[in-house]
């Protein structure tokens, strides 16, 4: 009887020990990656946040990408992303980082207890952590968290910028395609309608000479901004030295691509040589913000947004003609960062001087306007390039386009409201909504002229040509 009672008690204690195994994860980075004293750590983070000046919207952010090196090297970069989310009301932060010290398949999810730093303890969102664990099938692997810094170095920044938020630490093992897709699918299932932020922890290339590292990092950042997930996964599986946290990045981008509309904006880039590291072997760091935006984010523009786009267009033309430089898109307005098609029309003394644009929403609107403005001024084959002495006489008109809609009934076309795209084979003809109004065309003439512009017979719209309509916000 006594023996059986002893065994039962031992079993209870064993089970209890397993349930407590996670508990409070003590800091292993304090005094190494960041200051061990709370006051010093708090003041240092505050200073980095104060100095950071990101040019990006603060609304609609669902994920940030930040580095995880020692603070002396990378904290000033991370601050650019954390500055954007400072003081927001996120209830939970899912932190996804790579495993540097323990090799394993899949992911390890910390589901109980909390993480501790010199700034105090942050509780785990146990409910959300369990949901992600169930959806993915990934459990807690103690060895993955014992020494890992990629998660821990994010905690003090979260404590300073989102002091009320709970966390879900996730460490990814080998960055395999199956693991990336499994985690992405779990995030998609569990984060819907959740007020949560994803923090992706990664550094870029490691230990190349400065120039080579910068070139490689520039390409990697472009792939991230363009959401080229499959290209990133292929590079990771080939073990290319591009990102140590490439798996977490790819999983988050894949999750984002399945939302209504995703946009990634790089905020800041630096390498370890900027803070005293040798230029012969540098590590790259970047910060970025990821937005989810409805594809119909109010198809409208306020007067100040129109003014900003006109200023961007004129600046782009002036900079390219005078210096041969393409200006950067630095808008902080969310509507100007949504991917949209647009045309830029240039006139001089009321006469057409150039018109080029993009129908498809390939680039953020502000970048579309920059490209279209430069091309309208320099690459419209109907005209000579705009000269320096013409700049002051240029009148700029911008047409921001809604998504294309294929129609079967031409009677649905409303002159003055709709633009037209006529397609047959590889031939395409586009006319903006204002064109038939300026030329006093009726619907049939509008269709005929679009066909002629495509290089088709004037009545091709009756005989198999595809008809698309779109709307435009036109201003000058």
Could you describe the 3D structure shown?
There is one protein chain. With 476 residues, this protein is an alpha+beta fold. Helix content is 37%, strand content 23%. It contains 15 helices and 19 strands. The strands form 4 sheets. Strands 2, 3, 4, 7, 8, 9, 10 and 11 form an 8-stranded mixed beta sheet that branches. Strands 13-12-14-19 form a 4-stranded antiparallel beta sheet, covered by helices on one side. The longest helix is centred in the middle third of the chain and has 21 residues. About 3% of the residues have low confidence.
What is this entry, summarized?
37% of the residues lie in helices and 23% in strands. The protein folds into three domains: 23-292, LigB-like (Protocatechuate 4,5-dioxygenase, Chain B); 296-400, 2-Layer Sandwich (Glycoprotein, Type 4 Pilin), CATH 3.30.700; 404-476, Hypothetical protein ph0010, domain 2 (Dna Ligase, domain 1), CATH 3.30.1490. It is built from 15 helices and 19 strands.
Pick out its properties.
15 helices; eight-stranded mixed beta sheet; 37% helix; 19 strands; Dna Ligase, domain 1; alpha+beta; Glycoprotein, Type 4 Pilin; Protocatechuate 4,5-dioxygenase, Chain B; four-stranded antiparallel beta sheet
Topology, element by element:
Blueprint: H1 2-20, E1 24-25, H2 38-51, E2 61-66, H3 71-85, E3 92-98, E4 107-109, E5 114-117, E6 120-123, H4 126-136, H5 142-146, H6 149-152, H7 155-161, E7 166-172, H8 177-190, E8 196-201, E9 206-208, H9 210-225, H10 229-237, H11 246-257, E10 262-271, E11 282-292, H12 303-323, E12 342-348, E13 351-358, H13 365-378, E14 394-401, E15 405-407, E16 419-424, E17 427-431, H14 434-439, H15 443-453, E18 466-470, E19 472-475
Parallel strand pairs: 1-5, 2-8, 3-7, 3-8
Antiparallel strand pairs: 2-11, 4-7, 5-6, 9-11, 10-11, 12-13, 12-14, 14-19, 15-18, 16-17, 16-18
Helix pairs in contact: 2-3, 4-8, 8-11, 10-11, 12-13
């Amino acid at each position: 009887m006594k023996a059986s009672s002893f065994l039962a008690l031992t079993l209870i204690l064993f089970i209890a020990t397993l349930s407590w195994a996670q508990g409070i994860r003590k800091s292993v980075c304090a005094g190494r990656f960041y200051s061990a004293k709370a006051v010093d750590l708090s003041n240092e983070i505050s200073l980095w946040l104060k100095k950071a000046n990101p040019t990006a919207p603060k609304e609609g952010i669902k994920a940030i990408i930040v580095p995880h090196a020692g603070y002396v090297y990378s904290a000033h970069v991370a601050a650019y992303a954390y500055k954007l989310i400072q003081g927001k009301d996120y209830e939970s932060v899912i932190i996804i980082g790579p495993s540097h010290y323990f090799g394993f398949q899949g992911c390890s999810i910390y589901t109980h207890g909390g993480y501790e730093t010199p700034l105090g303890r942050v509780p785990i969102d146990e409910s959300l952590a369990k949901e992600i664990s169930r959806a993915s099938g990934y459990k807690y692997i103690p060895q993955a968290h014992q020494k890992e810094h990629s998660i821990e170095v994010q905690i003090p920044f979260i404590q300073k910028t989102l002091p009320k938020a709970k966390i879900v630490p996730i460490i990814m093992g080998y960055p395999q395609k199956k693991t990336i897709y499994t985690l992405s699918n779990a995030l998609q299932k569990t984060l819907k309608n959740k007020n949560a932020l994803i923090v992706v922890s990664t550094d870029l290339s490691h230990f190349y000479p400065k120039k080579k590292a910068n070139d490689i990092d520039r390409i990697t950042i472009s792939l991230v901004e363009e959401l080229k997930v499959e290209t990133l996964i292929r590079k990771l599986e080939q073990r290319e030295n591009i990102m140590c946290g490439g798996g977490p990045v790819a999983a988050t981008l894949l999750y984002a691509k399945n939302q209504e509309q995703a946009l990634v904006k790089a905020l800041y880039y630096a390498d370890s040589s900027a803070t005293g590291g040798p230029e012969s072997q540098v590590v790259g760091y970047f910060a970025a913000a990821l937005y989810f935006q409805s594809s119909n984010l109010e198809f409208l523009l306020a007067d100040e947004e129109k003014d900003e786009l006109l200023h961007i267009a004129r600046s782009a033309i002036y900079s390219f003609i005078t210096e041969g430089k393409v200006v950067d898109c630095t808008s902080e307005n969310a509507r100007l960062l949504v991917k949209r098609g647009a045309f830029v029309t240039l006139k001089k003394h009321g006469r057409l001087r150039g018109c080029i644009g993009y129908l498809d929403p390939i680039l953020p609107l502000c970048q579309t306007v920059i490209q279209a403005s430069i091309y309208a001024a320099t690459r419209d084959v109907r005209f000579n390039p705009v000269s320096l002495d013409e700049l002051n006489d240029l009148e700029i008109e911008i047409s921001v386009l809604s998504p294309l809609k294929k129609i079967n009934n031409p009677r649905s076309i409303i002159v003055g409201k709709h633009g037209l795209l006529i397609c047959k084979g590889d031939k395409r003809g586009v006319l903006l909504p204002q064109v038939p109004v300026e030329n006093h065309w009726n619907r049939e003439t509008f269709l005929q002229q679009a066909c002629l512009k495509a290089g088709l017979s004037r009545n091709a719209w009756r005989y198999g040509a595809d008809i698309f309509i779109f709307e435009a916000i036109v201003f000058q």
